[in-house]
UniProtKB/TrEMBL annotation:
Protein name: Hypoxanthine phosphoribosyltransferase
GO biological process: GMP salvage; guanine salvage; hypoxanthine metabolic process; IMP salvage; purine ribonucleoside salvage
EC assignment: 2.4.2.8
Signal peptide: none
Pathway membership, UniProt: Purine metabolism; IMP biosynthesis via salvage pathway; IMP from hypoxanthine: step 1/1; Purine metabolism; GMP biosynthesis via salvage pathway; GMP from guanine: step 1/1
Alphabetical list of NCBIfam families matching this protein: HGPRTase (TIGR01203)
Assigned keywords, A-Z: Coiled coil, Cytoplasm, Glycosyltransferase, Magnesium, Metal-binding, Nucleotide-binding, Purine salvage, Transferase
SUPFAM superfamilies membership: PRTase-like (SSF53271)
Domain Phosphoribosyltransferase: 19-164
Gene3D superfamilies: 3.40.50.2020
Highest taxon above the source species: Bacteria
Entry cofactors: Mg(2+)
Broad class of enzyme this protein falls into: transferase
Length: 183
């Protein structure tokens, strides 16, 4: 079955070994930054960040809680609509806490900026961002992550949590989806 998914991949952009190594490096940097801070809440943006957040949090060695938000701005499209809809909100009060937003990819920046502003308004001490992938060529809103795994070219990527129409999330690598699949 996996072969059927992999047949739709034009090329592997980031292999599994490179992902694991870089995520451990990011966790080390995050551990250093938060070592003297209290009340860290790690917030994964569903569903795309789930693989990244799982690997990252396994390597976080400070006290933290895990939370999730589910937001949508894509639907079944490859383009963000710009309309950010919160489908699932936090279960925890983040007032006076440090918040680390975990995002799979920064594309236009619209969704992430809306989330960052929302969490800041809720009284968090700080809202920092860690993104596995950054696609700066597509940026419409000026936003930068505090930690980035990989900068990637303007190609439609799937795997390791990223999807097209809810498929391909379970691939253990980041790959470029063949255009014929989504055009």
């Amino acid at each position: 079955m996996r072969e059927e998914l992999e047949e739709k991949i034009e090329k592997v952009l980031i292999d599994e070994e490179s992902l694991t190594k870089r995520i451990k490096q990011l966790a080390s940097q995050i551990n250093e930054y938060y070592k003297d801070k209290n009340e860290l809440v790690i917030v994964g943006i569903l569903k795309g960040s789930i693989m990244f957040m799982a690997e990252l949090s396994k390597n976080i060695n400070i006290n933290c809680t895990l939370e999730f938000m589910d937001v949508s701005s894509y639907g079944a499209s490859t383009e963000s609509s710009g309309n950010v809809k919160i489908m699932k909100d936090l279960d925890t009060d983040i007032t006076n806490k440090e918040v680390l937003l975990v995002e799979d990819i920064i594309d236009t920046g619209r969704t992430l900026e809306a989330l960052r502003r929302s969490l800041e308004k809720r009284g968090a001490n700080s809202v920092k961002i860690v993104a596995l992938l950054d696609k700066p060529e597509r940026r419409l809103i000026e936003i930068k992550a505090d930690w980035v795994g990989f900068k990637i070219p303007n190609e439609f990527v799937v795997g390791f949590g990223l999807d097209y129409n809810q498929l391909y999330r379970n691939l253990p690598f980041i790959g470029v989806l063949k255009r014929e699949v989504y055009e």
